[in-house]
Design goal:
Elements: H1 14-18, H2 20-35, E1 80-83, E2 94-101, E3 105-112, E4 120-121, E5 123-125, E6 133-135, E7 137-141, H3 160-168
Antiparallel strand pairs: 1-2, 2-3, 3-4, 3-7, 5-6
Length: 171
């Protein structure tokens, strides 16, 4: 068997067989530069990295919208909110239903449950009256509210969007 240049194929060295692709690339590059002697061709094999450019973040999956800081008139009676009251730091998540919205405070009714169970209203014992309970209602400063208003599902669970935000929230 003969090669292109007329030599015997068996006589080619292993070095020539291994480097044929490199020879092709170099010959194509020299042909391109010989055909256009006056023009300045950019070197297609010159890879540079701009270290000063910022790499954009990669989001895998659906991006969540930014959580807006609730304003004074966003809350209405019956809405649920998540809070981070230092007095109840061991209880998480802190979910409550808005009873009334004041300028700097919310009057809330606390609820108990977890991310995967039904939420039910909290009650507390009444002082001096044996066995009687009352709804656990308190005033909470607006600065402790960190979520936008939401509604529980028909089964009494937290909606999926709010569960995702609970996972992201760092307390």
């Amino acid at each position: 068997m003969r090669t292109r240049d007329g030599g015997n194929y068996d006589e080619e060295t292993e070095d020539t067989q291994d480097n044929w692709i490199l020879d092709e690339i170099l010959s194509a590059k020299t042909r391109r530069t010989e055909n256009t002697p006056g023009s300045a061709n950019p070197d297609i094999f010159d890879f540079t990295i701009e270290e000063e450019s910022e790499i954009p973040p990669v989001i895998i999956g659906k991006a969540l919208p930014a959580v807006a800081v609730p304003g004074p008139c966003l809350y209405k009676e019956g809405d649920f909110v998540c809070t981070d009251v230092p007095e109840y730091a061991g209880e998480w998540p802190q979910v409550c239903r808005v009873i009334a919205a004041e300028e700097n405070h919310l009057v809330v009714h606390w609820y108990k449950g977890s991310k995967s169970t039904t939420w039910t209203p909290c009650t507390r014992r009444m002082k001096g009256q044996k066995g009687r309970t009352e709804p656990w209602i308190e005033r909470v400063a607006r600065e402790y509210v960190w979520s936008t208003p939401f509604r529980l599902t028909s089964a009494g669970h937290i909606p999926k969007k709010m569960k995702d935000r609970l996972d992201e929230y760092s307390f």
